[in-house]
Amino acid sequence: MSAATPMPDGAALEPGMHTSTSGTLGMRGAQLALLTFALSLATFIEVLDSTVTNVAVPAISGGLGVSNSQGTWVISSYSVAAAIAVPLTGWLSRRLGETRLFLGAVILFTLTSLLCGVAGDFHVLVICRALQGLFSGPMVPLSQTILLRTFPPDKRVIALALWAMTVLLAPIFGPVVGGWIIDNFSWPWIFLINLPIGMFSFAVCTTLLRPDPNETRGARAAPIDLPGIALLVVGVGSLQAVLDLGHDRGWFDSPLILTLAIVALLAIVSLLIWEAGERHPVIDLSLFCDRTFSFCVLIISLGMMSFSVVGVIFPLWLQAVMGYTAYQAGLATAPLGVLALVFSILVGIHAARFDARVLATFGFLVFAAVLWWDAHFTLTMTFTQIITPGLIQGIGLPCFFIPLTAATLSRVSDDKLAAASSLSNFLRTLSAAFGTAMSVTLWDNRALYHYDVVAQSVTKSSGNTQRFVQGLHGMGIDGAREFSALHHIVQQQAYMMATGDMFYMASITCLVLAAMMWLTRPKRGAAMTLGH
Known about the structure:
Shape: globular
Oligomer: single chain
Order of helices and strands: HHHHHHHHHHHHHHHHHHHHHH
Mean pLDDT: 79
Number of helices: 22
Largest sheet: none
Strand content: under 5%
Structural class: mainly alpha
């Protein structure tokens, strides 16, 4: 029964009870809160695992006797497998059932976390990480779908707010948690911490959720779209490999990257052509016929791309230019989550009263203002000056993410919620991966440009240069050491200017997205119509 389907006469529910298609009939307030907590924890550890290993690569590489370049396979194997699994979620949920698929994904993700923690060989660890990524794919979109089905219509914005908090805050705290574990324990514990959380989430969800025997009846009789699955695996896997390996291998100067890019292009184009004519597609492209869904997916994808660019460049700037440690850089990003947590709750409570476009526009404008502020950072910034803009930026994060998510799914029919959620999450994740991959290359290129410009002013006839050199001589620095010091200060300034350029570009992008929001047509209180 859909959440919007009227109850038969005489079948009114008791207060605090409601119907859903997830088998949660009769669930009361305390049970609902416990289920929400368990679903949020499952989402949190999945998103956390995609970022917690970023600061652990040197420790893993040293512990298993491989280079840092090889160590990044621990990250890329997970992201490639997850990228393949996410868009398959809608199709798998139709065949297996949303509840069964989610529970299976949680327990298998937990077990593969254990395998990663006890792996004593690097290649075994890479294989286990790939399996972990494969099982992680359905967890985020299905946790969102189950929450929306479980909550009564007038509480679904709060459900989205709770879900958004886990999706947004986990990447922020991932580097902090990873750095703390590496400093105080050892790298296997970044995987082993998933065990108690995963088992708790599985136990609670198994107890409270009941699979609906009718949700897969028609899908099991439908033929399997094997060509679609094959093209999806090849296309998405190749594209993710290009994004993960491109920077280290010089992008298209590398025959491997060029070959993978061609394979990805051909496979994805073929997939779109095939799915457009397939009666039982693995990816439902008909969802893009709705204008609001299409524009909202585009906006949230571009928004998360900008967010990922800033998320990569900011800690890199702190470590490479300002001299922060990985743990200190993680602490500098953490304040973003303080007001994001508070405003996620406020937005969840009050979002239904506002036009989603107004809230999202406000969120993007906050982002644009803060990023413009960040673009004026200097090399003399104190820790407090650095974290203050991030603290304010936390206001804008839930204001654009929660209303956009609600608007994206507001016109999607109940039977297509899982497919729509997995597709929008896949494009959001892929856009973030694209932003992450391109950010370092763009940053380096802008730094090279600024280095050439600044270096031209460093001449013997320049008064500033003469005063700087005299200061070096006063400290006993001359000859090759003098040249090295000049090179270092010019390079440091070049990367500072490149960082400003990246923040400027992200700020302008947010202004464009604020304007694009008015191309959508979400209903007032859009989240209350989810699953109609």
